[in-house]
Structures are given as structure tokens and as C-alpha cells.
Amino acid sequence: MAITARLHNDHTAPYAIATALSQLPHPMTAPTSPRPVILWFRQDLRLADHRALAAAIASGAPVLPVYVLDDATPGRWAMGGASRWWLHESLAAIGRALAGRGAPLILRRGDARVEVPRLVAESGATALFASRLYEPFHAARDAEIGRKLATGNVAFRLFPGALLHEPEAIRTQSGGSYGVYMPFARACMAAPAPPAPLPAPARIPALPADRLPHSDVLAEWRLQPSAPDWSGGLRVSWQPGEAGAAARLAEFLDGALAAYDRARDLPGSAGTSRLSPHLHFGEISPGAVWHAAQAAIARSGAERAGEVFLKELLWREFSAHLLVHRPEMPEAPLRVEFARFPWADDKAALRAWQRGRTGYPIVDAGMRELWTTGWMHNRVRMIVASFLVKHLLIPWQAGEAWFWDTLVDADLASNAASWQWVAGSGADAAPYFRIFNPILQGEKFDPDGAYVRRFVPALARLPAGLVHKPWTAPPLVLAEAGLRLGRDYPAPIVEHGGARARALAAFARIGKGA
User: Which of 322, 245, 321 is nearest to 289 (CA)?
Assistant: First the structure.
């Protein structure tokens, strides 16, 4: 029997679920034994603008919401520590929201290829609804689950919801996929707008309590750290969940959006949206962000700033499209010549970079922000990535893996595409010979040192002209700042000029085929 999983979307008109519903099994009419449909939550932990949820409710059957913690399918790309902390908080939030609407969330842990069919069998579900995922291993898993369910005449229906445009919808004139960002962004801007967002349902029809399958207890999954608990900075910095996402968006649109084109590069100011983890976990849909931003732009007249923000959303979109068409992107360079790049195996330098002890203040501030808050300003992400792969000649995959474990917004497509962009090995990448000078980058984007002073407090009393190069400070200035180089703060682990020359020589070697 053919796989019954299919995608329902309409990019040419406001969203309508009639097409999807016309293909659903008719709901059971016997009131004494209703058979449910399962709503499988994944990276869509919200109730508003949730097309799979809307279609499940409209089916007329009871809805059984489930979440399966599957570490088997992604393998080495199972969620890192920071993402697990966020997941716990987000599942708690969506669980409360679902329970308040009459449909408790069922939790299971294990291989989804086993647990999802098991839940279908236990509940007698007639269909499985879910939002589409784009990671190659998740796509393969969904296809396998679809085949299993088809043998029992249970439909597996996938709906869009994580992207503005499905990968099949944005094509070149010849029908191919885009490998360069700007033409891709122009094609997205020219495409029909994403459908208007759907409101959250007031009530969700559910199974009687005595017919609910067994559910795990969230706390027993131990997603949060125990002793030592490193999550204090995350708790102070974030409010995971759909309400937190809505509050974050409203605060950004009412404030920082107006100056986004100028302030987004200044890590010492609150100039960015900080929506990335909410978008990754699906606590808000990109379509809802898009429409809200368009409305805010129209109200404020901030067309330039708004356009820059929307293009940042499209970089996320571009990364996902790249991953669909180039599934090797998280593991291997997209430019094949970089497979022979003479990377260094320097564990001490990698450790210094991870812990923010390179001796370059803007780099160290970024790495300490990451360690403390689970997030890093985007401009600083580029600086620290360039330092790792060019000053230290450490493979981009090592940085990608560290970000994967420590970022609350760790997203396979965005993480891989961004690291390959900096390394020069990706689609539409920055050229490798573009090597950021961390001193000049700090002076340009953190001119008064506010960002460095916050995350590297040992440097807080240095004058602005020296905070990005403390090793040049005269002894008297160091003494007045209470700073002892080599003890309170390390000397640079590499010298910029020498490291730059070494990086360019390494790049020349792959150009010669060495």
C-alpha cells in the first residue's frame, strides 16, 4: 500500500483546511466508543496557527495530543543540554495549555518508530496528524512510520508550519533549488504571502480520562540539569513557551524593530528579536511573526529596518531549504575542495575557545554569553566562528558541535549553514580569506566595551580604548583597573597577524590541490 503521509498547504490563498479534511476518514458516529485522531507534537509546541491541530479538531474525532522524546532517530544530533532545558520548560507550558482546553498531553520516551505506532494501537486512532519536519533523519523516520501505519489503514497526515514556504514551493526558473541567498530571498519576497495565522482553539475535544494511554511524567525525563545546576543564567534570560514567544515578539515590534537595521550589529544593546529559540521549538510560527512584523512596519513606517528583519527570517528559511536539498550539510563541506583543508587538531586551543579564554575580549565575551545564557548575539557568532576556523584552524564541525550542545536555539539547518558560511565551505559562503580581526570587530561593534564588560568582568575597569586589547595597556592602567594579565585574564593564545598568515597559507594549499 502506498504511504499515506502527505503535505497539505495552499500558498495562493488564506489557509483553508477543507482539502485536508476531505481526505480524512469520517469520524465514528457511535457515541459510546469514539476513536480518536492523534496529534503528534514535535517542533511545534504551540496552539495558535497550528494547522495540524486545526485539522484534527475539525475532523470531529477526539484529539489525543502526544509528544515522544526520541533520541534514537537523530543519533549524534540528539538534543544538547541547553535545548533539553528549554524543551522541559516548553513541554510544561504546552501541557498546561492543553490540559486547560480539556486534552492532556501524553508523553512517551523512546524510538518514535516504535512508540508512535504503539500509541496508535493503544488508542485505536484512525489517523495521525503532525507538522512536517525537514531534518533528513526525521523525514526518513516519518516515511517509515507512514508505511507502518498504512498497513493498518491509518493515515499519517503532515502539515506545514515550521517555514514560510515549503521547499518545493520556491524554485529557480529552471525548476531547481537555490544555492545563493539573495536570489532565494527575492523569490520568497515575490511569492504569495504565508497564510494568515489561525487563532488558538478555545476547546479541544478529547478522550475520556479512563481511555487515555499511559503517560510518562515530565520530571522523570531529567531534561533539566541536577547538581551542579548550570541553568541559572538560562532561567534569568528566557521564558520558554508560547506565551513567552508572544511576549518576546510584542516587545521587539514595539521597540527594537524601528532601529533594527542599525542596532542589530551592536551586541551591547538590545537590538535583536531573540526569537530564534521560540521559532526553533515552534512556540510561534514564522507566518505569525511575518504577518505581525508587516503590520508593525506599516504602523511605524520603519520600512528599511523592517525589510532587514524580514530578510533575517529568510536566512533561516534559506538554511532549511539548503538542508532539504543538501542533506549532507551538517557533516560535510558543500564545497568539495574543503574536504582536503589542513585543519589543526589542537584540543587545548579548542578548550580555550569553548571556555572564553582566548585572550581576545570580544571572542571571550561571546563564548561566555553562550555558556551563561544559552544564546549569543549574531554578530558575535560570526566573530567567534571566524576565530575558531581561521585563527585556530580548528574544523568548523567542532564549533558546530559545541553550539549544538550549548545553544537554546540549536537548529540543525541554521547551525550547519551558518558555520559553513563562515568557514567558506558552504553555499553562497563568505570567502575563506575574509578573516575577521577580533580587535577591530570589537572596537567597531562594541565601541564603549559594554558587551565585553558585562561578560568579562575582569576587564570592566579598563578604558574603552583598551578594553578590546588589554595586553597593550600600560602597567599603571592595568594596576588602576585591578587587572593582572595572565591571572585575571589570559594573554592572546595566538597573535592575529601570524594566525592570519597561517590561515591564508592553509587556504592556498587547497587551491593548489595539496
Answer: 245
pLDDT at position 429: 72
Q: Is 153 one of the catalytic residues?
A: no
Catalytic residue among 396, 402, 404, 421: 396
pTM value surpassing 0.85: yes
Domain that holds residue 447: 336-511
Is residue 52 a contact partner of residue 131, using CB atoms and an 8 Å limit?
yes
CATH number, domain with residue 288: 1.25.40.80
Does residue 372 belong to any structural domain of this protein? yes
pLDDT recorded at residue 513: 52
> Is residue 396 flagged as an active site residue?
yes
| Domains identified in the chain, total number | 3
Domain endpoint, select from 274, 294, 327 = 327
**Phi/psi of residue 54, each to 5°?**
-60, -40
Choosing from 166, 378, 437, 471, the catalytic residue is 378
Q: Any bridge partners for residue 38, and if so which?
A: 64, 128
Choose, from 343, 371, 437, 471, the residue flagged as catalytic.
Answer: 343
Considering the domain boundaries, does residue 446 fall inside one? Answer: yes
- Any catalytic annotation for residue 315? yes
Sign of torsion over alpha carbons 280, 285, 287, 293: negative
* Residues 318 and 363 both lie in one domain: no
For residue 470, count CB atoms less than 10 angstroms from its CB and return exposed for 0-12, middle for 13-18, buried for 19 or more: buried
Give yes or no: residues 114 and 181 share one domain: no
**Residue 55 belongs to domain with CATH number:** 3.40.50.620
Both 303 and 381 in one domain: the answer is no
Q: What confidence score (pLDDT) does residue 33 get?
A: 62
Q: Is residue 221 part of a domain?
A: no
Catalytic residue among 312, 371, 437, 471: 312
Alpha helix segments (H runs only) across 326-407: 347-354, 361-373, 378-386, 396-406
C-alpha cell at 117: 505506532
Q: Are residues 294 and 435 in the same domain?
A: no
Contacts of 227 (CB under 8 A, 6+ apart): none
Active-site residue, 419 included:
yes
Quick one: pLDDT at residue 1? 28
Selecting among 122, 166, 307, 315, the annotated active-site residue is: 315
The pLDDT, as a whole number, for residue 371 is: 97
Q: Are residues 170 and 135 in the same domain?
A: no
Structural domain includes residue 210: no
3-state helix, strand, coil in the chain (%, to 5): 50, 5, 45
Which residue, chain included where needed, has cell 508572544?
Answer: 246
Based on the residue annotation, tell me whether 290 is a catalytic residue of this protein.
Answer: no
Q: Which residues contact 500 (CB under 8 A, 6 or more apart)?
A: 390, 391, 435, 437
Are residues 137 and 270 both part of a single domain?
no
Helix residue ranges per DSSP H, 194-302: 232-237, 242-254, 260-263, 276-280, 286-300
Report the alpha-carbon distance of residue 449 to residue 6 in Å, rounded: 52
The ranges of the chain with pLDDT < 70 are 1-33, 512-514
Question: In terms of domains, do 152 and 34 share one?
Answer: yes
Q: Which of 86, 402, 404, 419 is catalytic?
A: 419
The whole-angstrom separation of Cα 221 and Cα 70 is 12
